[in-house]
Design a protein that fits this description.
Layout: E1 2-7, H1 11-22, E2 31-34, E3 37-44, H2 47-54, E4 60-64, E5 69-74, E6 77-82
Antiparallel strand pairs: 1-3, 1-6, 2-3, 4-5, 5-6
Length: 90
């Protein structure tokens, strides 16, 4: 799974820029600003990372079913997990 990290703790801000983030081309480990929020392509993560994070009580898990995207929120970070076979980004 590919991971895009979004550095904000504000759900409303994240929600407002979510679609723009998905449409922003990012190279692996590339960092960009989207409406003043730092966004980084964090590369591929193993499936067990997602499974481990889902079990932590401080992590909020959101699922975008029509795109098979999982979003985790913890502290000041949102992580968007996209299956590598999806062509959502780029």
């Amino acid at each position: 799974m590919k991971c895009i990290s979004v550095y904000t703790s504000n759900f409303e801000v994240f929600s407002d820029i979510y679609e723009e983030i998905l449409n922003t081309p990012l190279a692996e480990n590339e960092e960009k600003q989207v409406e003043g929020v730092t966004v980084m392509e964090s590369g591929d993560v193993p499936d067990n990372y997602l499974d481990r994070m889902k079990t932590k009580p401080e992590v909020v898990v959101m699922k975008v079913k029509d795109k098979d995207i999982t979003i985790l929120q913890h502290r000041n970070l949102f992580e968007i997990f996209i299956p590598v076979n999806e062509s959502v980004v780029h």
